[in-house]
UniProtKB/TrEMBL annotation:
<keyword id="KW-0663">Pyridoxal phosphate</keyword>
<comment type="function">
    <text>The glycine cleavage system catalyzes the degradation of glycine. The P protein binds the alpha-amino group of glycine through its pyridoxal phosphate cofactor; CO(2) is released and the remaining methylamine moiety is then transferred to the lipoamide cofactor of the H protein.</text>
</comment>
<dbReference type="GO" id="GO:0005829">
    <property type="term" value="C:cytosol"/>
</dbReference>
<keyword id="KW-0560">Oxidoreductase</keyword>
<comment type="subunit">
    <text>The glycine cleavage system is composed of four proteins: P, T, L and H. In this organism, the P 'protein' is a heterodimer of two subunits.</text>
</comment>
<dbReference type="GO" id="GO:0005960">
    <property type="term" value="C:glycine cleavage complex"/>
</dbReference>
<protein>
    <recommendedName>
        <fullName>Probable glycine dehydrogenase (decarboxylating) subunit 2</fullName>
        <ecNumber>1.4.4.2</ecNumber>
    </recommendedName>
</protein>
<dbReference type="Pfam" id="PF21478">
    <property type="entry name" value="GcvP2_C"/>
</dbReference>
<dbReference type="InterPro" id="IPR020581">
    <property type="entry name" value="GDC_P"/>
</dbReference>
<dbReference type="InterPro" id="IPR015422">
    <property type="entry name" value="PyrdxlP-dep_Trfase_small"/>
</dbReference>
<dbReference type="InterPro" id="IPR023012">
    <property type="entry name" value="GcvPB"/>
</dbReference>
<dbReference type="InterPro" id="IPR049316">
    <property type="entry name" value="GDC-P_C"/>
</dbReference>
<dbReference type="InterPro" id="IPR049315">
    <property type="entry name" value="GDC-P_N"/>
</dbReference>
<dbReference type="GO" id="GO:0004375">
    <property type="term" value="F:glycine dehydrogenase (decarboxylating) activity"/>
</dbReference>
<dbReference type="GO" id="GO:0030170">
    <property type="term" value="F:pyridoxal phosphate binding"/>
</dbReference>
<feature type="domain" description="Glycine dehydrogenase C-terminal">
    <location>
        <begin position="354"/>
        <end position="456"/>
    </location>
</feature>
<feature type="domain" description="Glycine cleavage system P-protein N-terminal">
    <location>
        <begin position="33"/>
        <end position="304"/>
    </location>
</feature>
Length: 501
């Protein structure tokens, strides 16, 4: 009989019954002696004893407790959690990819170097940049790399007074953190009523101390910065550089390039825009692209192509390089996945990605707009994502954005990003991406409207959600201060009566 997984699912060792076998070993090879040192030999091998169906069912039940892009719509605003095509995994898992080693001689990994070189050519064309490093392991790592390049550029010119990085109040949280880590003072400027950069505030913020401005376009509200050329002019006139946070590149693919907007440095989240897995701390990749005048500051090595001898090689000859930002050459398997995706999609496919992503976000916006309890601050037209505010609902019913997010789980839906960006109170930040269907969007809106009705008729149902999940609502403060991260910790706390989920 089928049994759905529960939070207190037993360990596979506890399911063990003596004598049950779910595997077979090959016959030993005759006349082959292997001399294993005594200290390396196991004295005892403790493995659970189960049949193959029991093992399969156990891990299948556990997998059902998880939710991912293969389960359904995953609309985390700003994270761009799109479906990952399985062909990407197949190519990345090929033995010629999976079993090479970064210490191999260049002559034996020409294919790997070609993959990295070709990926750089794609990224240059897509973004309008002149050179790339593929080293950074993630977006934040890319940000740090980018601002370090900006820092090196100014110091090389003797402009040691340039110690300020400007960020809008709608910026990603990692932007000011990355700037501070690179030794800069962070200057925050406000957004205007339309949710875009306030030009007057920017004019007042720039000075001889300005090293650069960190910005993404479309911005974190999902709004395109219409004054981007004027923004670039203001920053460049002051002697600063313009940095592009690539988190929202999905909204402009094939339509406009950051390099053409006036940006000097950019990081690209391959794990977002180009559909490779991410979440839970990895994997990821955040290549950094620069205009030609900054290429000498890139991390070493960079991949070069010798056309005359038809060979690829690693170039360490960059005297002004900021050095390495990650071991070896980056997360290679993620780079392979991204190039696979790019080659399959092609120019027209990438353009369709942004068109459908923008269409989906605006379709959802129009369907949810006007629903009681949800406000739509700033401009109505969005790009790839939209930020609603549940502040009216909170004021009128006591139901918060957090409660809405928890109640969505009862309907088998993943919650959107909440409480970000900080300039929108009780924010619900929804990014459907291009890989969801109209039916997905209709159902998501239907559930959000139902939650609104519940908030005004029976708010306690929403405030106490979720009700249908393996784990009920937890104490967020206690969960942060004393997280239960293993099955045994849960058992011990349960026996002591210190936890009740």
């Amino acid at each position: 009989m089928y049994r759905q997984a529960k939070w207190d699912e037993p360990l596979i060792f506890e399911l063990s019954k003596p004598g049950r076998i779910g595997f077979s070993l090959p016959e030993p090879i005759e006349d082959v002696e292997v001399d294993i040192p005594e200290k390396l030999k196991r004295k005892k091998l403790e493995l659970p004893e189960l049949s193959e169906p029991e093992v399969v069912r156990h891990y299948t039940r556990l997998s059902e407790m998880n939710y991912g892009v293969d389960s359904g719509m995953y609309p985390l605003g700003s994270c761009t959690m799109k479906y990952n095509p399985k062909i990407n995994e197949e190519i990345a898992g090929h033995p010629k990819v999976a079993f090479i080693h970064p210490y191999q001689d260049e002559r034996t990994v020409q294919g790997a170097l070609q993959i990295m070189w070709e990926l750089e050519q794609w990224l240059k064309e897509i973004t309008g940049m002149d050179r790339f490093t593929l080293q950074p392991a993630a977006g934040a790592n890319g940000e740090f790399t980018g601002v370090m390049i900006i820092r090196a550029y100014h110091l090389d010119r003797g402009e040691t007074q340039r110690n300020e990085i400007i960020v809008p109040d709608s910026a990603h949280g990692t932007n000011p953190a990355s700037a501070a880590m690179a030794g800069f003072k962070v200057i925050e400027i406000p957004s205007n009523e339309q949710g875009m950069v306030d030009l007057e505030a920017l004019e007042n913020a720039v000075s001889e101390r300005t090293a650069g401005l960190m910005l993404t376009n479309p911005n974190t509200l999902g709004i395109f910065e219409e004054d981007i050329l004027e923004i670039a002019k203001i920053v460049h006139k002051a002697g600063g550089l313009l940095y592009y946070d690539g988190a929202n590149l999905n909204g402009i693919l094939g339509k406009v390039r950051p390099g053409d907007m006036g940006f000097d440095v950019i990081h690209v989240n391959l794990h977002k825009t180009f559909s490779t897995p991410h979440g839970g701390g990895g994997p990821g990749a955040g290549p950094v692209g620069v205009k030609d005048f900054l290429k000498d500051y890139l991390p070493v090595p960079v991949v070069e192509y010798d056309e005359e001898n038809n060979r690829y090689y690693l170039n360490y000859d960059l005297p002004k390089s900021i050095g390495k930002v990650k071991e070896f050459y980056g997360n290679f398997a993620v780079l392979v996945r991204a190039l696979t995706y790019l080659k399959i999609m092609g120019k027209n496919g990438l353009k369709a990605v942004s068109e459908i992503a923008v269409l989906n976000a605006n379709y959802l916006t129009q369907k949810l707009k006007g629903t009681r309890g949800y406000a739509l601050p700033h401009k109505e037209l969005r790009k790839h994502e939209v930020v609603f505010s549940a502040e009216p609902m909170k004021k009128e019913t006591g139901v918060k954005a957090l409660d809405v997010a928890k109640r969505l789980l009862d309907h088998g839906l993943h919650a959107p990003t909440i409480y970000f960006p900080l300039i929108v109170h009780e924010a619900l930040m929804i990014e459907p991406t291009e890989t969801v269907t109209k039916e997905d969007l209709d159902y998501y809106v239907e559930v959000l409207k139902k939650i609104s009705e519940e908030a005004y008729s029976n708010p306690e149902v929403v405030k106490s959600a979720p009700h249908n999940t393996a784990v009920r609502r937890v104490d967020d403060v206690l969960a942060a201060k004393r997280p239960v991260i293993t099955w045994r910790m849960y058992k011990q706390l349960k026996e002591k009566g210190e936890i009740d989920i």
